[in-house]
């Protein structure tokens, strides 16, 4: 079911509807009465091939609000206005859409769109918090040009992005995409670094940044506060992530280490140059006619090792990537041990594999010996598996932290002190 609230972004929901129906889904559209001021009933009916109604008073003999809510495998509200979020959070049922939200037992996905001030208002944020606590998925709005001359967070994410999220929620069945990363701060690095030789040339690599962007987007849609450190990427900002742009490995290192200080997890999806030219020429290097000078290189510091060395109490969790061409798993295990990270995502590269493609296939290795194979599929699916692994490990760290606090608070009895086994 596609609910449409009264925002100008309703026109983008037409494209989302088209993507859903073209993928073979049966979609019932339930606009609010005011949403029909932006896009009329005829458009929704023609695009969905289904009747459209805003009122609980139509077809009363069928009790539409109960029927629609019970039948749906997924409810998407796009755009979700400040008013719609408020009514949903309060449990109102004053039109068909809000009534359906109360009868639906399937995953519910809200895609907010409104002016920045309305989005950032404590009332709206409290409503979003309430809906997330109840298990709804509220995606972060994208930042950019709004209806007027203003810009900022509040744009409806692109229909293709919402369609991809909807597909992942449906693929995960009843589990949906729980906002299980709410309250977590995560850092993702993406793209490929460039090491400059002179003002016009650099040593670089083929990384497009798509896997890192998929990680940032999925983490944001699962409720995390996301910092994306992006090196030389051409992709649109993922909705809800704070993007820091860098070029070289050294800039990426500085940005990642700074963001990592307050983070629960860092995922290093960026392809970081291992070496940089020992010196950068301030002016363009010219042909001299003589044999070219070899390029002297200096090693870049390993960011993962620095992250691992700097952490306390196991935080932030550190996830590395290993792009390998040969002996993929054996090289991956060795790299995991060498770098000391918690998880290492190993994938095969070369000959059109992984770089710049929408799909990826990988094995997620855990320092605890786990090995999760992820078959070829969208990079968002691999991203979700990585976040599942991260979420599980963060929950264990939370428990360990709580236990340590409990131990610190509990008075130590005489008996406990005399028994060496009493203190684990
Ligand atoms: N990485 C890093 N700092 C670097 C280089 C790489 O943190 N200076 C991170 C990458 O972001 C990636 C992981 O390390 O998550 C694997 O990088 P890779 O270059 O494959 O590993 P190396 O240890 O350099 O091994 P090799 O080049 O021999 O394959």
Element layout with pairings:
Layout: E1 2-4, H1 10-22, E2 29-31, H2 41-48, H3 64-71, E3 75-80, H4 82-90, H5 96-103, E4 108-112, H6 116-120, H7 122-133, E5 137-138, E6 142-145, E7 151-155, H8 159-171, E8 185-191, E9 195-196, E10 202-203, H9 210-221, E11 225-231, E12 241-246, H10 249-260, E13 265-268, E14 275-277, E15 297-299, H11 303-310, E16 317-324, H12 328-339, E17 343-348, E18 359-366, E19 371-378, H13 379-409, H14 414-418
Helix pairs in contact: 1-2, 1-8, 3-5, 4-7, 9-13
The chain binds cytidine-5'-triphosphate.
The site of cytidine-5'-triphosphate (CTP) has 14 residues, from helix 11 and strand 16.
* CATH topology description of the largest domain: Rossmann fold
Helix and strand composition category: alpha/beta
- Strand segment count: 19
Overall shape: it is globular
What would CATH call the architecture of the largest domain?
3-Layer(aba) Sandwich
The CATH class of the largest domain: Alpha Beta
The fourth-level CATH homologous superfamily of the largest domain is CoaB-like
Separation of the first and last Cα atoms: 53 Å
Radius of gyration, CA atoms, in whole angstroms:
25 Å
Taken as a percent bin, the fraction of beta residues is 15-25%
Please give the largest β-sheet.
Answer: 8 strands, mixed
What ions, cofactors and ligands are bound? cytidine-5'-triphosphate
């Amino acid at each position: 079911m596609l609910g449409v609230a009264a925002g100008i972004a309703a026109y983008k929901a037409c494209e989302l509807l088209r993507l859903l129906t073209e993928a073979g889904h049966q979609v019932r559209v339930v606009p609010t009465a005011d949403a029909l001021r932006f896009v009329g009933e005829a458009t929704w009916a023609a695009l969905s091939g289904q009747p459209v109604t805003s009122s609980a008073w139509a077809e009363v003999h069928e009790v539409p609000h109960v029927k629609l809510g019970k039948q749906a495998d997924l409810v998407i509200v796009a755009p979700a206005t400040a008013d719609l979020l408020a009514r949903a959070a309060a449990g109102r049922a004053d039109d068909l859409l809000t009534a359906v939200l109360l009868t639906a037992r399937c995953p519910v996905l809200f895609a907010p769109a409104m002016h920045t001030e309305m989005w950032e208002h404590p009332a709206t944020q409290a409503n979003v918090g309430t809906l997330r606590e109840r298990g709804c998925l509220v995606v972060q709005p994208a930042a950019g040009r709004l209806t007027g001359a203003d810009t900022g967070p509040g744009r409806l994410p692109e229909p293709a992005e919402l369609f991809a999220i909807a597909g992942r929620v449906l693929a995960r069945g009843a589990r949906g995409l729980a906002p299980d990363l709410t309250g977590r701060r995560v850092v993702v690095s993406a793209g490929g670094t460039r090491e400059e030789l002179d003002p016009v040339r650099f040593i670089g690599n083929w990384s497009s940044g798509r896997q890192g962007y998929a990680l940032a987007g999925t983490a944001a849609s699962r409720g995390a506060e996301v910092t994306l450190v992006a090196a030389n990427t051409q992709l649109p900002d993922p909705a809800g992530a704070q993007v820091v742009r860098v070029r070289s490995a050294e800039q990426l290192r500085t940005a990642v280490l700074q963001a990592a200080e307050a983070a629960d997890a860092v995922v290093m999806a960026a392809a970081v140059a291992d070496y940089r030219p020992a010196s950068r020429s301030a002016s363009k290097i010219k042909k001299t006619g003589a044999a070219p000078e070899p390029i002297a290189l200096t090693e870049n510091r390993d960011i993962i090792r620095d992250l691992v060395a700097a952490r306390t109490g196991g935080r932030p969790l550190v996830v590395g990537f290993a792009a390998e061409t040969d002996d993929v798993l054996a090289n991956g295990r060795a790299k995991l041990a060498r770098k000391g990270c918690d998880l290492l995502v190993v994938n095969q590269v070369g000959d059109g594999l992984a770089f710049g493609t929408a799909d990826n296939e990988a094995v997620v290795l855990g320092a605890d010996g786990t090995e999760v194979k992820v078959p070829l599929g969208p990079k968002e699916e691999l991203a979700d598996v990585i976040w599942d692994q991260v979420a599980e490990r963060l929950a264990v760290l939370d428990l360990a932290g709580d236990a340590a606090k409990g131990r610190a608070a509990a008075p130590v009895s005489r008996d406990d002190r005399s028994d060496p086994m009493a203190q684990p």
